[in-house]
Amino acid sequence: MGCFGSRFDKRKGTCTDLNTVGIQYVGGEGSNNDFCPQDAVSLFYGDSKEVDEWFKVGPLTMESEEEGKKIALEAWSALVQQGNFLKDNFGNSDKTVYVSGKYQDKDAIAQIEAVKAFLKEKNPDIEFPEEAKPEAEAMEGEMMEGEMMAEEMMEGGEDGAMEKPDLYAGDSAAYEGFANLPALLLKCCTAQPYFGDLVKSALIHYEFNFKGKSLADVPMPKLSLADLSRNPLNAKETTPGQWAGVAALVAAALDKAEATAADVWFSGYLGAQDVEALKAMAEGDNILFPGWMAGWKSEDEAKTHLTNLGEFNGDDSCDKVIITTNTKCASAVVCHLFSQRFNGKLKSFVQDEESKIWTLTVEDDSWEYSTLADWKTWVEEEAKKKAEAAAAAAMEGAAAEGEMAAAEGEMMAEEMAAE
User: Fold this and answer.
1) Does residue 380 contact residue 373 with C-beta atoms inside 8 Å?
2) CA end-to-end span of the chain
3) How far apart are CA 281 and CA 137, in angstroms?
């Protein structure tokens, strides 16, 4: 097994792989779940305050126009920067090149353009800055083509990224204006999965790297550009902090939207170290899924999603995994059930010999508290219980030692009397 935390340390090295962030978890050897009700990225973005102190959110809605415009502009800036990075370094040849070992380069570029177009279209009251021209002038044609495709892609049509099935046709949900910004961003994260994986990777990055025993009281440092990935071109990419507002807003609004418990199936890839950690866990062990997961209403739909992922192109070994549970969900983006910061207990983890798909069955183990104040009270109560249990165990041990000493004394006395 190695030294304590070695498995988790290895998992931290690949936790932001875009192939695995969709269903990434905290659990197993060396990991630390302090059962905090907020994601680490939310604590980072909100300076460890209660969500209601800095976000006024409802079920996939928000009330603060100022906060909405701020996050929309942050998202726009990050999208432009990431888009220019892609245009400067990818999509310039006839060969298929994969971005982050998952997305064809031209698809990644088109998805970023689609999110920008949708964000701008649905928020006409926000004055988005003009974009600087990318370094690669040869990409101008690609930019125009991407903008023309943007609206069709948001609807999931035939011209969408990777020509996936039209899952979102007829979506009549409200996405206009700052009030519906959480719903819009969730739609973009789902319909344009490259964007969604970027946002989720930021969330997972903070969860794995800054989770501590007193997380709510510890400010989380911003990272330097060089810390973010193994990509040598990384200095031109966005940082996790640039996506933090999007991640925090989606998480907070989804948390408010969770309502009815339902059977739900989540599916995607997990890395080799993630799988090994699950195999080593025992029934009843805690497992936490930070942020949101987009689930399906049947196992068949979850399997279809795995099929639609297509050929795996990542550098690190991964396995297909289906997670099945019953928990409170939010129904959104036409066909999905979303779960936010799902906490549970592992029941089983088995692999089908024919399909090689792993099935992880998890029992819901939600906490009763929802605020940081209530969580801190719970932490104090748990610490008190542990201290009392330790004291009781010590007293029992001392009493047992006393009884043993007394018994030994009686035996010695009997032996002496017999002599």
Assistant:
1) no
2) 55
3) 52
Token pair for 200: 């989720």
Here the tokens at position 156 are 């999931």
In the chain, the amino acid numbered 275 is V
DSSP 62-123: E--HHHHHHHHHHHHHHHHHHHHHHHHHSS-SSS--EETTTEEHHHHHHHHHHHHHHHHHH-
Residue 102 belongs to what H/E stretch? none
Residue 242 φ/ψ, nearest 5 degrees: -70, -20
Q: How far apart, in whole angstroms, are the C-alpha atoms of residue 241 and residue 229?
A: 14
Token reading at 231: 């990509």
Q: In the chain, what are the domain boundaries?
A: 6-364, 372-419
- Report pLDDT digits (tens) over 320-344: 999 999 999 999 999 999 999 999 9
**Secondary structure (DSSP) of 180-243:** GHHHHHHHHHHHSHHHHHHHHHHHHHHHHHS--TTGGGSPPPPPPGGGS-S-TTGGGSPPHHHH
Higher pLDDT, 387 or 105: 105
**Residues with Cβ within 8 Å of residue 107, at least 6 apart in sequence:** 161, 162, 194
SS3 assignment, position 288: strand
